[in-house]
């Protein structure tokens, strides 16, 4: 799709994200008070159903019903190196864990969160000095999320960039907008404290770019690209697996194109895949489920390998027993949240250089459940965007 250059004029604030168009202004706090506005955004065309397939608690993943330019300011990044070196990288290590002896009726992790509503009040770590915080969250319908704790989380996190997926807002959003063609379908929106150099809506490398409306927003900044993404689901019965494979190839091509521009990469969102068996509670019974087929997992592996990218959360946490039971999605059905039956579908993927030099932490906000069937994921990096 053709790139859209934003007219947004954004200002940084410790308490809110502000975005202005020529004749309108909104804040994240205002979004929490009204269900008809959003900020830096594109809207997609994907509808999520809360049907988990067969009436069995192992079938715990929801399915979709459909489921520039700017010169690279590399010098600015180099000037930061000395200052960045002084920022200590946080190695995120989970607390000591004990496996449950009660089978699938309780979480694997002895200290797992099992709340079904958003905590309020909610206190989250502040962004370290000299760093940028980015959060990504599938809100499963913004209008609904607004009533169940969206504002509580957004205010507590105070991120520099917010990427939301599946907002399902039909009205054109205030800034970077790719209007949806169908009602009640998902969308991608991004809220930023710092104005990007350029914005691209959709997936230009796809053979049918029109079908990627609302699936992808790419923001260009002096040091990096941030790609907010809602990857198509293969659907119940894998009826759209072929389309998913086409998407993966196009996504890989787009990431390679962006890397060729000489900037670092941050790819985030609901990527609709559990890459490894550790990324879901019941891998053995879900090998034919959308999100955990060998085709989807292999497609994701190829993207990581050929574009030399890193799944930041898994890279930091490892794949040992102590890392089990950490998920970003819990179906509303079968008491999956209480039982700890989840899937890790939401990611922050970066190029290897960024992961090595700039990533401070990559975490799942496991406690922030209730406003959606997903919880947010957060990336903190050194330096400016």
UniProtKB/TrEMBL annotation:
Q: Does the keyword DNA repair apply?
A: yes
Important for catalytic activity (site feature) positions: 346
Chain positions of site Interaction with DNA substrate: 374
The site (Transition state stabilizer) lies at 272
Q: Does the keyword Metal-binding apply?
A: yes
Check the record and name the InterPro entries matching this protein. Answer: AP_endonuc_1, AP_endonuclease_F1_BS, Endo/exonu/phosph_ase_sf, Endo/exonuclease/phosphatase
The biological process GO terms on file are: base-excision repair
Record's compositionally biased regions (Polar residues): 17-33
Any binding details for the cofactor? Answer: Probably binds two magnesium or manganese ions per subunit.
GO-annotated cellular components: nucleus
The entry lists its GO molecular-function terms as: DNA binding; DNA-(apurinic or apyrimidinic site) endonuclease activity; double-stranded DNA 3'-5' DNA exonuclease activity; metal ion binding; phosphoric diester hydrolase activity
Amino-acid positions noted as binding Mg(2+) in the UniProt annotation, renumbered to this chain: 138, 166, 270, 272, 373-374
> Low complexity: which segments have biased composition?
1-16, 34-46
In the Enzyme Commission scheme, what number(s) does this protein have?
3.1.-.-
Q: Which cofactor does it need?
A: Mg(2+); Mn(2+)
Q: Which UniProt keywords apply?
A: DNA damage, DNA repair, Hydrolase, Magnesium, Manganese, Metal-binding
Region (Disordered) residue ranges read 1-77
Q: Which family does it belong to?
A: Belongs to the DNA repair enzymes AP/ExoA family.
Name used for this protein in its record = DNA-(apurinic or apyrimidinic site) endonuclease
